[in-house]
Amino acid sequence: MKKLIFILLIPLLYGSLSAQKKIVIEDLRSFSMHGLESIYLQTPAIRQTLLRNLNEIVLQHFDCPLADTNSLSVEMLKLPRARTKADFNTSDTNQLHLFLDLYQYRPFDFFLATRATQNDTSVMKSTKTVIRLSALLAKDKNTVLLNKTIDLLLSHGETPGMGIVSENTYLSPKSFLEVLRTGFRLLLDPQDMTEQIGIKATPVFQAENLLMPALSQQQRSVAATQKNGAAFTYNSEREMVRYGDKLYQEIELRGKNPTPLTPFLRNVIEEARNKSRSDFIFLHQELRDVKRDHNYLLKLLIQVGPDTEVSNPLTNFMEGYVHYLLKDKDTIARFSISHNARMRGKFIYPDKVWNGFDTASLHTFSLAQVVPPQPLVAAYQVKGQIGKHMFTINCLGSNTVKEILVDDKRICIVQGRFIPERFVFFDASLSPEILDQLLLIGFSGFLE
C-alpha cells in the first residue's frame, strides 16, 4: 500500500511544479551619473551572484523562482529613461515579467531634484552616492502586480582600511552586492512601502604604488578620537595630542605697532612685497602634547594679494622654511609647505581599487578605454627640520592620509584629516615626543 501511494504522488507533485509560475527578468537597465559601480554588472561572477540573490528574494515574496538563474542581460544607458510600460514578446501565462532599473546619481543632483531631505544637512553632507532601484512586475501587458522605486543613500561606514579613499568608486564588489541585496529585498516586498533608506558601507581605496604595498595586511592601531584630539598607543605607551582653535594675525611692517619679526622673515616678506602688492598673515594654532604637559604654537606664513590664484587664500603658504612649531620662545621645527606636490615615481591606477587592508581584494575594472596610471600628487608636502632630524609629511588623498618620514625612513602612515584615526607603524625608534610634534604639524586644521 505504501508503494502504491508513493507512485501516485509522483505525478501529482510533478504536475504541481510544472504549473508553477516563474519570473522572467526581461531586462536590467543601468545608468551612472558618476561612480564606476555599474561596471561591476559586466563581471560574470557578480551577475551570477546577483541572480542567486534575486532568486531567493522573489521566492520569498512571490513564491515563484526565476526562470533563468544563469544569464542576465544588462543594458548600459547613456541617459536615464522612465519605464512607461511592460514590453515583452511571449504569451506564456505561466510567466511573470520583471523589469529592473539601477541608476546612480551624484548626491548634489539627487537632493536638488528631489528636495526630499533638504532640511537634513547631515544626511546631505555624509551621502557619497545615491543608487535608485526600480522594479516593475507584470502578469501580462495590461496587469501590473508591482511598480516601485527605492533610493539608497550611501555613506561611509567604519573600516580597518587605510590609504587613499577613491573619489569615483564608493563600493567594493562585495559591498555592491550586499547593498543591492538589501535594496531589492525591500523593493520587491509588496508589503514594504520604504521609499528611501540610508546605508553605511565600507569605503573603497584607490590602488597606487606608494601606500598600498606598505599597508597590505599590516596591523592597525586605532586611536580614541575626540572633537579636538586623539589618544593612541606607541611603543606600548599611551600618547595624546590636542588641536586648538585656528587664529590669524595680520602682519604690519610699518606704523606705530609693527609686527615683531626675525630679520630673516622680514627680508622674505619685503622681497615678496616688492614683487607683488600682497598682504601677509600669520596663521596660529595652539597645540598640546597632553602626556608631557607641553604647549606648542604652530605659526604659518601666508601671502594674500591680487596675484593669489588659489581658491582659498588661507592656503597660499609662503615658499621656503618660513613656517614654525614653537614652544615658548624656542623653535622646535622649521619647515616648508608645498601645495599639490608630485610624488616622483609614484602613480595612482584609476581602473583599480582595493579594500585598504589586503591587496588580495584588488579589483580591476573592465573599462571601455584603457586609462593609464596617473601621477600621484600630495595635497600638501611638509618638509623641514625638527631637532637634529629632517622630516617629510606627505598629505595624500585630499589630505585624508599622511605618510611621515624622518631622515628618509618611513615612521608611520596615519589615516585622518584633522585628527589621527588609525596608525600603521614601521619604525619605532623615533622618540614619542618628536612623533607627537610631527602629528601636531601634519594634522593642523590649516591644511585644508
From TrEMBL:
**What is the name of the protein in this document?**
Uncharacterized protein
